[in-house]
Amino acid sequence: MRHKMPGDVVIRGVQPMEEVAIGMADTAGRFDTIFQEHYPRIVAMLARLMGDRPHAEEIAADVFCKLSRRPPLFGGDLTAWIYRVATNAGLDAIRSNSRRKKRESQAGIESLRTAPNAGALDDMLRAERCARVREILGTLKPRDTQLLLLRAEGLSYRELAQSLGIQPGSVGTLLARAEAEFERKFRARYGDSL
Amino acid sequence: MTECCKQGELRAYLDRELPQQEMKQIATHLEGCPACSASFDAIAARAQRVSASLCDLAAVPSLRAAPARASHAWRWAAAGAVLAAAAGLAALALLPSHKAPVTAVHRTAKSAPPIEAANAVNPPQVERPQARPAVHHRRKPRPAAPEYFMALDNEPIDTGVVMRVALESGMEADVIVDSEGHPRAIRPVSLTK
Questions:
Q1: What φ, ψ does residue A172 adopt, rounded to 5°?
Q2: Which residue of A77, A94, B123, B163 sits 20 to 30 Å from the alpha carbon of A8, by its own alpha carbon?
Q3: For the structural domain made of A15-96, what CATH number should be given?
């Protein structure tokens, strides 16, 4: 199948008919369906990753916005594309947002100073732990991070497979690997058990 | 199944995400294969640890002074109300608003995770299970934890936090406290164990 592009560039490649249709009349309806089904999940996934729900909503909205304006003209799985873009955007956010870390650490110290009780210490330790988990998630392959986060949201293997654009039969293997990798990196970095 | 199980199969078996026949085959194989059985135990334990780590992330959305808040579209099944009436828990009298000594035992009180629009049709579910309970072929299955809170009134709850409290009797309970600080629903913890 050949597609004529501006400038006489010819791209050779097989595109499933279904995906070719995205660029055509069906776009709006398809977009609505995808939005309704996946927007809440993507927000939940990003909120867990980032610990900042408003920011997570912002990123998710941004991804869908991009999609609605300029549907990707490649053959492939649109749903998996959205999850991948969203995960990458979330990972970028947690890696680059050092201000957040600073704020968290200050909030922890502040809570110790203003409310010197056992709970405040617990809060601080837990925040520290969360920061570590997020840091490790940031070092995994995005696909592994996505899988772990969505599994934690309670998605079934079928739904997980859809979000990754893979067969449901592969989810067990990938999940087991992602968990092993997470634990290995956590131990390598922090030396203690999870 | 005579040949040994792959890691991925065991992981899917743990989540009961295999066809029924395969579930049975693996269960049978695990009975007779110490190597696979050990492997399964390791996978299950790791899955549990990783799941717990990721659960923590949802419990502390961000470290701000305010408690974790989650908007939640509550739909109270009539059954919940009936249960509340039937149980007639003395707990009602022990709730914070009634000046009974209530001690927070867990600052980790999990906020009710938001139920997204797509799930709004589900029955009220305060803590969505973060991972399916580990299924072990040799252990007896535990009774399922009730996911239902008993509503203390008939009003819908928009936002709230779940607090683990110890009642005077020594009993523990999860209480949903709304944004105005009023207890709105309760679930004795003993039932969830």
A1: -55, -45
A2: A77
A3: 1.10.1740
Break chain A into its structural domains and give their ranges. 15-96
**Out of B10, B60, B114, whose CB is closest to A130?**
B60
Q: How far is CA B78 from CA A43, B90, B120, in A?
A: 31, 21, 16
Residues 115-154 on A with a CB inside 8 Å of B are 118-119, 122-123, 126-127, 129-130, 133-134, 148-149, 151-154
Q: Is B120 on the interface with A (CB under 8 A)?
A: no
Dihedral sign computed on CA atoms, order A86, A50, B112, A57:
negative
Mean pLDDT of B131-143: 48
Question: What's this model's pTM, rounded to 2 decimal places?
Answer: 0.56
Query: In this complex, do A107 and B15 lie within 8 Å of one another by their Cβ atoms?
Result: no
ipTM value:
0.74
Of B55, B63, B117, Cβ closest to residue A40: B117
